[in-house]
Amino acid sequence: MDEQTTKILDKIPFFRKQRKISKNTVRHQRRFLFPKANFGMVFLRKKASDSLNAKNPFKELIKRLPYFKRKITVQKKENVAKLSQDKVIHKQIYRSFIILTVLILMVSITASFSLYTSNGNLKKVEHLISHQVMTASQIQMETLQLHVIFQGYLTRNYSIGDVKKKLEEIHEGLTTLHNAIVTNDNNAESKEITEEIVRYEEVYARLEEYADKLPITYADTAQATKDTIVLLSLDRIEKMKESANLLKQYTLNYTTPIIHNIHDQNDLYARVSIIMTFAALIIALYFVYTITGNVKAFRNHIHQRTKELVSEADEMIRIASDVRHDAVISDQHLSELSRDIEVLVAGTDEIASAVEEVNRGINDVGLLNESLAQSTESTIVFVEKTQSDLTQFNEKLEDRLGNVQGIIEHLHGSLSEIMEASDNVVQLTDKINNINRILTDITSISKQTNLLALNASIEAARAGEYGRGFTVVAEEIRNLSNQSSQSALEIEKIIKDLIGQSSVTVKKLNQSTQIAVASVTETKQITAIFHEVSGIFRDIVKDINSIKELSDLVSENSAKTNHETDQIRTYSQSITERIQQFISSIQQFAGVVIEVTNTTKDSLEGVQHQFKLLETQKDNIENIYQTVKGL
């Protein structure tokens, strides 16, 4: 065996131990087996490199989406919190109702003070009437009765005891009137009444003195004495009548200004109460208008935020649709890859058949040395066919390797998009939670408003006629509070459902992320297997080239054909083992591709389920939008 043959055989791992083959035998065997040494691996590697460097439509899709160009700033994340800090509506409502309650209390206190003062003045008038006017009238009437009794005494119808009894009654009336006048006031009229009472008492004392001098019967005294006493008595009774008339007149003059003063005070208190009522009503209307404006502004803000949520939900639905479309494309690529692998396995079976045929040819060479040339040509044909098939298989393998790399890029893009969609859903959940907190504040405000309106109604009811206007305003405010509370409860219920569905969406997105990560790992394993298969192909190409060289040596050294045929048979068996190993690797690769296909299908189903959840969330957000719009 010469140096050239040794160098050729050293290149082949299987033939490194076989160093006794001669140069002619190797040349004959090289001509006999495979005429071409190029197995097409360079073309396949170039094909894979071109596929990896090609533009990824999924990446381009993500770059074109404006949603992924947008950056979520701290300002956008804190909009709802800032709204809840700026729009302190519940504090304004609380202060407004405190002021309304104070005004109602002031009106109630003023009305109560007016009624209390009027009642005091009326009691005072009643006291005057009962102790002064009635007493004066009683004195006047008793004076007339005294005059009648004294006339009856002269006609012997009454005794002097009746006269003295009536005088005692008049004295009691004078004492009562004098005490009432002195106790109540010290103005000019009361002084005149007191002076007149003193004069009346002087007349009464003289008349009582005369009455003591009168006999029990008219016939008990001389005529002159009786006439003098009777005339004097009648003169005193006339003076008593005049004094009684003056007492009544002075008493009326004394009580009339007091009654007018009472009426003036009542009118003043009524006017003040009416003015305060109108002032409180105007202030209440002002605060109601202010609160209504703030509530409208808050409603418009929620309206705008809900529009943004609906827009983001639509954008997320579009992204989910694109992800689903790309997942379908990835599934199609994997299906095509699986079919190509099946074709590659079939081609490998053909290679194994060709190798077996080569073995049969070698046996025929040993048995039929005379037809060596013809068998060698047939073998070369088989080797060329096998080399061509291997070249085609290698090209397909490199092409599918490029597809696998594309799938890896798609999966990476899908994983990034799913993670971004998960972050968007989390941000959406945070915004919904902020809205829920705001709705909780609205519910608390409605409860406080309802309670304050109830207190205002109670205070207005205590105020009577002066608080009737406040009763109507408080009732309207309480109705508005009940409507706001009911709407807030409905929105809170929808938001709870939306939060639950968002949690399910986040969970599904996390599961999809895990599946996508597993798909990426398994796809990397596929790439490693592809590289391993490529190495096997390179070894097979080297072996085939070596076999071709050996066939050439066999052609040149036909004399040593029998000896070299055994060696070629050994080499063919080694090639068969390598092909079997290659077939095993291809089958393993096919199993991994099938597993990746199933994983991609599961990911596609998860994406479809997330798409449905996003549509449900969009419907819920639109329901919230309609509810807020109806506030």
TrEMBL record:
One of its GO terms (molecular function) is transmembrane signaling receptor activity. Keywords: Membrane, Transducer, Transmembrane, Transmembrane helix. It holds the Pfam family MCPsignal. The chain crosses the membrane at residues 97-116, 268-289. Residues 326-572 form the Methyl-accepting transducer domain. InterPro entries: Chemotax_Me-accpt_rcpt (IPR004090), MCPsignal_dom (IPR004089). One of its GO terms (cellular component) is membrane. It comes from the Bacteria. One of its GO terms (biological process) is signal transduction. Coiled coil: none annotated. Belongs to the methyl-accepting chemotaxis (MCP) protein family. This is Methyl-accepting transducer domain-containing protein. It comes from Geosporobacter ferrireducens.
